[in-house]
Amino acid sequence: MLPDPGSFRDPGNRVFYDGERVCRGLDSRSAADWRAVSSRGFFTRRMAQGSIVRTTALPADDPALQGWEAALVHERIPFLSYPFEWSCGMLQDAALLQLDLLLEALAEDVSLKDATPYNIQWNGPAPVFIDIPSFEPLRPGSVWTGYRQFCELFLYPLMLQAYKGIPFRPWLRGAIDGIRAADCARVFTWADLLRPGVLKHVWLQSRLQAGLADSQADLGGEIRDAGFHKGLIEANLRGLRGLVAGLSWSPAEAGWAAYGGGTHYSAEDREKKTAFIRKALGSRAWPLAWDLGCNTGEFSRLAAADCRCVVAMDSDASVIETLYRSLKAGPRLPILPLQVDFADPSPGLGWRGRERRALSERGRPDLTLALALIHHLCLGSNVPLAEVLDWLAGLGGSLIVEFVDKSDPMARRLMRNKGDIFPGYSREAFERGLETRFTVLDRLALVSVDRVLYFARPRAG
Amino acid sequence: MHASRATAVLMSVCLLAAAAVPARAYLDPGSGSMMLQLLLAGVAGAVVLIKMYWHRLRARFGIRKKGS
Lengths: 461, 68
Fold this sequence. Notes:
The complex is a heterodimer.
Chain A: E1 2-3, E2 13-18, E3 21-26, H1 28-37, H2 41-49, E4 55-57, E5 70-74, H3 88-107, E6 110-112, E7 120-123, E8 126-129, E9 135-137, H4 147-164, H5 169-174, H6 181-187, H7 198-211, H8 219-225, H9 230-246, H10 267-281, E10 286-292, H11 298-304, E11 307-314, H12 317-329, E12 335-339, E13 367-370, H13 374-380, H14 385-394, E14 398-404, H15 409-415, H16 427-437, E15 438-445, E16 451-458
Parallel strand pairs in A: 10-11, 10-13, 11-12, 13-14
Antiparallel strand pairs in A: 1-2, 2-3, 3-5, 4-5, 6-9, 7-8, 14-16, 15-16
Helix pairs in contact in A: 3-4, 3-9, 6-7, 14-16
Chain B: H1 2-16, H2 31-39, H3 42-60
């Protein structure tokens, strides 16, 4: 039994792993909440739809109970991700799911004790609420405990993006509990107070928090005694839902987004490249694939036919937003789009650096696609070629990789202001390094561009 | 005019909230954020706010609620 290092904030329950099973131990109070909530209409309906993670109770004699009053077993999420890796549209949809679940729960006298995007994961492009013990029977007269957290982790990041064009990801990555009202208020000007939600949810909240910072009052009790009721929460939720749904932004013209259009490949080379990748993909089943530098997601879609989950990653925010929107609109594919800068991938964060896991600790890929990526790392971010190959080999899976020579127009573009300061970057050096770390099974040199594709599997031992 | 009235309301809300004892939740909802939920709720929230004042006033004069 392996406890999840990130599951400790609510002392009433804890996630642990029993082999492949994802379990959750419940104390007596959480177990009572589970029994009260799990048969409600909204809960069973949402679980059947897949927007609440499929969950069953373990039998009382299951050894996994280990002293807990009860334990649950959750359907495994294919790959964990965090809000600082999501596109704006993903955070917006997660926020709407959070609000809708609470609205539906309140109608059946159930509440949610928190409101954090870390309670939401993804099955392909569909958000899934995973923290079952967050649901508890509504205590009459209680306020919405998660309101402040909702603002800090959902609303303010979305507002900053929509109103000011400030990307929320670096901020959320640097602040595990989100953006404080006072900090958010400093970003907005007086004119911004006219924008929907800024005066109420940002300015007023920051003033009240400052004014009541030293309050010793039992405000919750006083509010309850004065007749607070769930209708007031519902009114706030409906207002927030309209506000969040109305926030919009358009993905900026992505510098590399046109890349996937194939303008610099000949039609014949494009076909050959696709056939090469299709053949490699079809050579066996790949439970988990990473598509690094996925761009439009063309090859992620190809891989999705042979993989249980494809994590499509790109450092370009607009690329990930566009991909998310197209996946959401199309037939359901097991593709999870994430914004990741490979020269600065998500590290371990939070308590002891283990509360939110580093990207590489959330599941190693059986197959990595690195198509037209390596020149970005070597020529764009100056990472030595050998280190890039070490990193790819360290992921542990097979590899479909495309090497782009310095003479390629895209490579030249990366070097235009630097000059050629990369004597170690060459096809020969790449092949030598690749063959040291992998067994090359197949290769294809393209004709219309200076690029070579390789399919390789890791060397044993 | 409007700004000073808003400040006065805010000040009185803050003063009202400054006295003793906690509730039971693993997440701190924040005193300011709890009070804001009343202000966001329009007339219905204002009614709750006025009742809070009333209870506080009665408590100051030692008048307890029936049954307490």
